[in-house]
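User: Could you walk me through two proteins back to back? I'd like the raw sequence and the structure tokens for each, with a short line separating them so I can tell where one ends and the next begins.

Assistant: Of course. Protein one, sequence then structure:
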Amino acid sequence: MKKLAILGAGSWGLTLAWLTGGSHHNVWLWDRNPAKVEAMQRDRKVLFPVPVLLPQQLNLTASLAEAVQDADVILLVVTVSGTREVLHRLRDEIKLPKTVVLVNASKGIEFPSLKRMSEVFAEELPENPYAVLSGPTLALEILNGLPTACSIACQDLEIAERLQQDLSHDLFRLYSNTDVTGVELGGALKNIFAIASGYMKEKQLGDNAVGALITRGLAEMTRFSVGLGADQKTLYGMSGLGDLLATANSPLSRNFQVGARLARGESLSEILTDLKVVAEGVKTTHAVYELSRKIGLDTPIVDMVEMCLSGPFSEKMIVKSLMTRKLKSEQKETSQSG
């Protein structure tokens, strides 16, 4: 890899820049906010959304053209809702060469279009190779020197393996995969169950209940993803089970925080305004709720979270929704992908 461009200086974008900026000599970090870029250039220190000291070798710019010029790999780490606009600019303004590999590192489903990120990329830049990076990536843990592992998926295994080599780090182990649908849906759907887990933790419903939630959440996200063409095994990997366990158990997860604060009686609008960063699980819940009805799949926990986001919802309603469903065989259901 000759040049890596990272687009978006949010929590995950900054973390990826910190990981790669010290090991690759030609890494560029772009953000649309010139004032933010100027501040980073001045003292290399960022306090929000995560505290990080950026490597001196890392190049910083507010010019999208400068960031991607001669890049052979571009990591897009902007919000899901902002991704299409950036892709428009890469296509129409930059005239991005077809050889540039695009790697999506945002976790969600576009709303209200209900499109997966691979579908969005295919609509805007269909001839560029597409890959997705996803897994348990709590930024503060990585920035504190704690290790993690992720999946890097591309339909072209050779590209996936090349990215695996280029982006791996002492703290950041990558596993190659060709199941793009499974990897991107695993990363998107786990945010929904993190919201539910935060709610249940705050309401002190117990570790047993949270364990049951996570287990049933995995079955539900697997059933949904397989219904959209994913390989069931992918959901038991880093982008599925790995990410689910991390975010559903950690107050560092902004989606977990959303659920916990809803349980304390705060309104969704107040929470999202106060966070000042995007909690992708909110719109992903709306999207999966609509998609599950569109394709005829049963998603009881998603339905519960949708109700929680849409209005008042008590712990009694949660317990009732999870405990009074029709009794089933666990073995039979697991063999049928959830």
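----
Protein two, same layout:
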Amino acid sequence: MSQLDILLPFGLPPPEFAKDLLQQCKTPAIALLLARAKTLQSENFDPFSRALPHETWLARQLLAGDALPESSPPLADALMRQHGLQADTGTWFVLQPVHFHIARDHLVLTDPRQLALDDAEARALFEAALPLFEEDGKTLVYGDAGTWFMQANDWHDLHTATPDAACGHNIDIWLPQGGQERAWRKLQNEVQMHWHMHEVNAEREARGARVVNSLWLWGGASVAQASQGALPAPYTDAFNLHGWSAALAASAASKRQDCGATEVITAAPQRGLLALDSLLPAAMAADWGTWLQEMQALEADWFAPLLSALQGGRLHRIRFILTNNTRLAEFSLGKGALRKFWVKPSLNRLLP
């Protein structure tokens, strides 16, 4: 029996625009699938949660132990291993170079995906920041251009937020909180001052690119937490998981990137997890015109082929996990549900 769980971050439109957006969606395949599916659950999240609903769902599925709701998922160790690094002792955090937009009376975290920081630039900024961390007794390790790691054993109780949870907001309420929050802000400010006149930022500013003016701290995990590792193979196959979610899917027997619908359907996973995250950047930018375009692309590239596979018995069950920034909804159906001819295709399940 082949089952596919499909995670669709921001597949739920924002409540204030949902009715208008769904009226413009021409997506008959997903409308049929959702209309005839069974609702498994619907969960509301605090708008100030320190991880987005789809991030919390992934952590629940793929991380052993309890992910604290007041902090970002403890995944630094898993992400380090994905980069070929090993944390042997202590508490480690993920650090991401970011751009803070200066609003009238506050700072706003912009989407790190839009920073387009290359390796040479990142390494130059890393080398400039490294002595500051060493002076503070913290170990700083380079992963890739957008992902660094810091060991801070005495910061184990620091509560942090994922970059996507904080993106687009006043950073004040999303900054790390806990006994060592002032120590982090002091170190963060020192890095910001050193980077302010750095030649990398001067060159980026000259060509109209966003400057790299801060670091975002999150994902803290102690070795004790990390020793619990990932859950024992909740999925036999994982498709198109990117970034830290790919690191958490290490227990899957088969992991594949850049797959199309034909490859996923042909794999006939016993229990597969497919991430379709193309809606996320548009939603983070509140660009709902692009969100509609991406929905149309998903309809053609994924939803129509998946409906055909379910009708033809090449897939036996599909579960959708759809989210926005405050809500998660799960729906499930098998081939038998498609025989409910009296249930007309509709996207009303996506309404709040």
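Residues 64-226 form a domain with the Alpha-Beta Plaits fold (CATH 3.30.70).

Let me know if you want the two compared in more detail.
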